[in-house]
Amino acid sequence: MSLPDLTPDARALALIARMSLDEKIHLVHGHVASRYEVPPLDHLGIPGLRMTDGPSGVNAGGDGAAQSTAFPSSMAVAA
To answer: Has this prediction a pTM greater than 0.70?
Structure first.
């Protein structure tokens, strides 16, 4: 059975099983020097990723531009 024939969950588990510990760690953090980008894992068919700041806003800076949104923190909203 090829990967496209599997359910999405089964494909994800099969892909994770093929990854080394270093590759798994590689995917859970962004590189600050490259604007929070994670290079691709071509041999596994995983494209490069670009991370943002999540619930606090979106940071689209880079190339000298400091463009970002800043939402109130959840603590401030709760108060």
So the answer is: no
Lookup: tokens for 36: 């929070």
Q: Please indicate whether residue 36 or residue 65 has the higher confidence score (pLDDT).
A: 36
C-alpha to C-alpha distance for 74 and 55, rounded to whole angstroms: 9
Residue 67, sorted as left (phi over 0), alpha (psi -120 to 50) or beta, turns out to be: beta
Q: Which residue has the tokens 């080394």?
A: 20
Structure letter (DSSP) for residue 11: H
Instruction: Give the closest residue to 51 by CA, choosing from 67, 38, 65, 68.
Output: 38
For residues 14, 46, 57 and 75, what is the CA-based torsion angle, rounded to 10 degrees?
20
Beta carbons of 16 and 5 less than 8 angstroms apart: no
Q: With contact defined as beta carbons under 8 Å apart, do 15 and 44 qualify?
A: yes
First vs last Cα of the chain: how many Å apart?
A: 54
